[in-house]
Amino acid sequence: QVQLVESGGGLMQAGGALRLSCVASGRRFETYAMGWFRQPPGKEREFVAAISWRGGSTYYADSVKGRFTISRDNAKNMVYLQMNSLKPEDTAVYYCAATRPFYAGSYSYTSNFPSWGQGTQVTVSS
Question: pLDDT for 35-48, tens place per residue?
Fold first, then answer.
């Protein structure tokens, strides 16, 4: 497993942009598919975006498609979530997560991600 630490959350007005970062410690970061999930107040944790361990494929929840972009820099052990055109409904704690090495199945379920960061709060005001 890898250890993950998120940063970059904060308070933003609707229509603004934020970039979340996640740094991973541990070996062979390039073999882990990475994901971003979020948990709105009083709701279940939900899938936001994922990127394959090769970095060639990305996946998004319908609610963020066209507004959010996930990327990774394997040389720096980093994964990012660029969030544009933020909406109040994007308010949540955002979590970075890693699969097991060489995983290539569904990215939509938290159960497929054994490693998690502590989360970073994103608040979007109207």
Answer: 999 999 999 999 99
